[in-house]
Amino acid sequence: MSTDPRIERFLAAGPFAVAGASTNRDKYGNKVLRAYLQNGLEVHPVNPRAEEIEGRRSYPDLASLPEDVGALSIVTPPAITEQVVDQALARGIRELWMQPGAESAAAVERAEAAGANVIHGGPCALVALHYRE
Q: Domain span at residue 97?
């Protein structure tokens, strides 16, 4: 799907989760979730206010996710991204993709210091996964 080794590494680490998944199909948190689904990838939405998104059980936080989740797309405001990254690192998730607009310099720094593969400041998952409406 991509020639960027960071993205290839990320995509090889599934199952996936999307922090900031949304029930609103116009929001990027929903589109990123659907991009995974369109590619037949196992993905879990994370949203504390939704029980189900796009027919998938939604989890209130990262601690509630199934144990085998290996990669996390982050579609949250930067201040929330920092909390999400801390939770991901505590859980052992080291494949992180901060979508454009979700990036936080502090979160990137903490994740990279912990040895995580962090995709940020660049390609959107929608492009890499060939998302289509």
A: 5-128
